Amino acid sequence: MQAWAGCAITAPPVQAAPRATYEGVPVPPQFHDALARVMRVARLPAGVRVELVGSHRVHSASVHASGTIRLSSRLWREGHALDAEEAAAVIAHEVAHRNCRT
Ligand SMILES: [Zn+2]
């Protein structure tokens, strides 16, 4: 019979991965308006502050535990820009992901 070793209480703390750095780009107003609309009904955990960061280096949208929503500049690329309702759907989707992490 093999005993389960578990995690020794004296184990060193897990080191967080180095924070990735991204070049932020301005996020268009329809996304900030969408965030304001969503936050009127969102129920985020205490201490979570949502902010929007645009990036040319990501392909869609994602949310961090801190509440930062990273948005690809593809979402407002000329000729393919999301409208206000689509932007609100993206923001609401990411806020829901953040809420599910709690
Ligand atoms: Zn998703």
**CATH class type:** Alpha Beta
**Oligomeric category:** single chain
Q: Uncertain segments of ≥5 residues (pLDDT<50)?
A: 1-9
Mean pLDDT across all amino acids: 84
Distance between the termini: 37 Å
Number of strands: 4
- Number of DSSP helical runs: 2
Strand order of the largest sheet: 1-2-4-3
Order of secondary-structure elements: EHEEEH
Strand content: 5-15%
User: How many strands, what sense, and barrel or not for the largest sheet?
Assistant: 4 strands, mixed
Specify the overall morphology.
Answer: globular
The CATH topology name reads: Zincin-like
So, CATH architecture? 2-Layer Sandwich
The CATH superfamily label reads Metalloproteases ("zincins"), catalytic domain
SS content category? alpha+beta
- What Rg, in angstroms, do the CA atoms define? 18 Å
Ligand types: zinc ion
| Overall domain count | 1
Percentage of residues assigned to helices: 25-40%
Describe the secondary-structure layout.
Blueprint: E1 24-25, H1 29-39, E2 51-55, E3 61-63, E4 68-72, H2 84-100
Helix pairs in contact: 1-2
The chain binds zinc ion.
Family: Belongs to the peptidase M48 family.
InterPro entries: Peptidase_M48 (IPR001915)
Protein name: Peptidase M48 domain-containing protein
